[in-house]
Structures are given as structure tokens and as C-alpha cells.
Amino acid sequence: MTTKDLIQLSGLKGKFQKRQWALILALVFFFALTFLIPRYGLLNEYIQLIIIYIGINIIMAVSLNMVNGYMGDFSLGHAGFMLIGAYISSILTVWVFPRNWNPIFTSIILFPIAVTAGGLAAALASLIIAFPSFKTRGDYLALVTLAFNMICVSVVQNIEAIGAGRGFMGMKKLTTMPWVFIWALIAIWVVRNFVYSNLGRGTVSIREDETAAELVGVNTRQVKVLTFVISSFFAGVGGALFAHILQFITPSTFQLQKNVDFLVMIYLGGMGSIGGSILGAVTYTVILELLREALTILGTFPIFASIPSLEVWRWVLAPLLLILLMIYRNKGIMGLREFGFLVPFRDQFGSRFWLKRRELTNANSSN
Asked: Which residue of 112, 146, 156, 201 pairs with 251 in a disulfide if CB–CB is 3.0 to 4.6 A?
């Protein structure tokens, strides 16, 4: 590598580091806002609730994109893992943890333990279907995960101890904007580091050609199982946060429609893109809330008095949007592209200098 290349590389590193520091300062600023907004009422409670839903949906979309986007498989069981995380964390905070302890201690110490436990329970449950389903190829994972989701819902609906089909309640409102921000940041950070690790590159190679990946030494089964477990863990985390903001959960909440919502988010934002998952989650959540407001306004007019609720229209909107995306924009907003701040330095600029060094080596060897 020439002196000119070294100087250019040093300048690019400097720019990259400045951008990283700007990102850190922006994250600190937004984290401070998560405390200031509810403390001083900078936004009304409805907007705050929407922001929390957006954060939870970001966690769900980013984690699902690991399997459906980066690995190239098709999972329809994300809502089932969300259900497991929601119920396990709720049982811990309602029945196991003392309810008369200091609220600050409960919020800072016990709640993250419950959320982590919900994620771990979902991850362990994913192993039950990961080992047998990944022995096969093709669309079998979609069938297995869909069946798993239906089994989870049916089992919970028949357990009277946790409310059966009536639902489970009694949770305190422990999910706050700071906690959602922290868990969303953790999910993005873990997925980003995994995707750009050696195992993550193995995941992408499986998507492109599983047979070729095996031939070059990728342990495809190990990579698949690990990717699926990490994805399921964050689905359980999202379920735990979801349960402690609603303070009431029912098995019917986690049926097929929930999976369709998550699929729309990742296809809208872009498969194989963390930034696309974030954009898709934000866009789809906002669209649903705007539709809710539009239906509320239309309901005030006598001619639209019998208009169906949002839950009915969601069954129309989500599948229709998914079909339109598949036909006209199958790569989504981002496609396989990524925001620069989510890509490591070596992946942004390293290949450029590696090619130059290779050309220089070839030229020297020919001489």
C-alpha cells in the first residue's frame, strides 16, 4: 500500500470516528429525552404510547429480519415467541417477585430480570423447533413455526391458572420510554455485531446459496440455530415490554395477524437491512395509528356510523399492503442497503484498500 493510500485511509478513519462520536452524542440526547418527555409532559400520553409501540416494533422487526432477511428463511412464529416472553415475564412480576418492594427497585432491578427471563424462555422454546426443522430445507420452517405459534396460543387458552382465553392481568406499568429505548438499542447493537461477524457472514452465505456455504466450510446448521435463537430471544423481550405497557394480555393477541404485522414491517423497510427494519416499524406503526384516527373521525358522521373498527380493517390493510409490496416493491424502502452508521469501518472502506493491495501484489509478482 502506497503512502498516498495510507494518508487516504487515515483521513477516512478520522471521518468515520467523527461520525461515530456524533452518533453517540445523538443517542445520549435521545436517551435524555426519554426521561424529559414524560417528566415534563413535552408530549401527550397518547403520543408517548405510540413512541413506546414503535420501539417495541423495532425490536420485533429487527429480530425477525435476522431469520427472514439475512438468513433467507421464512418464519411465521415470531408472535408465538412474543407470547412466551409476555407470559413468563408477567408471571414473574405478578406472582414471583414481591409486589410490596420499593417501586424504584422493582423498576430498575426486577423488571429487567423479568424481561431477560422472558427472552431466555423464548430462546429455549426456539430450540425445540430449531433442531428438527433445520434438518430440512425450503419452506418447512414456515410450516413448523406457524404450527408452533398456533400450539402456543392453544396451550395458553386452556390453562386456567393464567386466565386461559380470558387473559392475564395484574402487571404494573413497568415499561417506560427509557427501558424501550435501551432494549431497542441493545437489539440493534447485537444484531448489527452479529451480522458483520464471521457467523453473521455465514448467515448471509446461507441465504445466497446454502450448498455453496457448506462447501466452503460454513457449519450451516449451527449458524441457523444460533441465528434463530437470538431472533427468538429478542421476540421474547418485545413480548415482555408489550405486556407491561398494556398491563393485560390475551392469547388471541398473538395469533397470525401479529405475524403478518411484523412481516409487513420488514418487507416495507427492506429485507436484510437493520435500517430498513427500523424504517418499516416506524412507518407501519404510524400508518395504523393514522388509520385509527381517520376511522374515529369518520365514525362521527351518521353515514359512517357502522364503519368497522381498526382491528377489522387491519385484516384487510396488512395483507393488502404485503401483496402490493411483493408485486411493486419487493426490496422495500432500503432493500439490501444499510445506513452508514450501522456498517463497520472495515466493511465500508476496507475492501477498497484490500483490492488496491491485491493489485499491487499481483503487479510485483509479475515483475
From this structure: 156
